[in-house]
């Protein structure tokens, strides 16, 4: 059963013209919220992100900043990220870097590199490796298959 405390609101503004894409996203709400909440009862939490990308033709560079606030209005996460995609025929190379400035005790940074391979117009497979410097961080990998309908 849902209660009114579980409601959320989302505002998404996007702009796209030529090589430029920009986006503003704000989410407020309860336990079903997509932002990281301190607890299930933290119904006034809010997440805000702003990002932009520019397509240089040979590569797309993107930057984003995302902040999360708890019900008391305290910023619990403030993450800035940079991304790079380089299409090369059926293969697209990927790189990303993110740093959370509000991480406790140690820096929370993550570096990711990967590649996607287009099997067809709508199907891709890919893999990433990453290294995360944080409490409990480490290295790892991910594999994926994606099909769009």
Report on the structure:
The two termini are 32 Å apart. The protein has 149 residues and is an all-beta fold. The protein has strands at residues 8-17, 20-29, 45-55, 60-69, 75-88, 91-100, 108-118, 123-133, 139-147. It is globular, with a radius of gyration of 18 Å. Strand 8 and strand 9 form a beta hairpin. The protein is built from no helices and 9 strands. Residues 32-40 have low confidence and may be disordered.
Would you spell out the secondary-structure blueprint of this structure?
Blueprint: E1 8-17, E2 20-29, E3 45-55, E4 60-69, E5 75-88, E6 91-100, E7 108-118, E8 123-133, E9 139-147
- What's the overall average pLDDT, rounded? 85
Could you tell me the radius of gyration in angstroms? 18 Å
What's the β-strand tally?
9
**Overall 3D geometry?**
globular
In N-to-C order, the SSE pattern is EEEEEEEEE
Weakly predicted, low-confidence segments: 32-40
- Sheet with most strands: 9 strands, antiparallel
Strand order within the widest beta sheet = 1-2-3-4-5-6-7-8-9
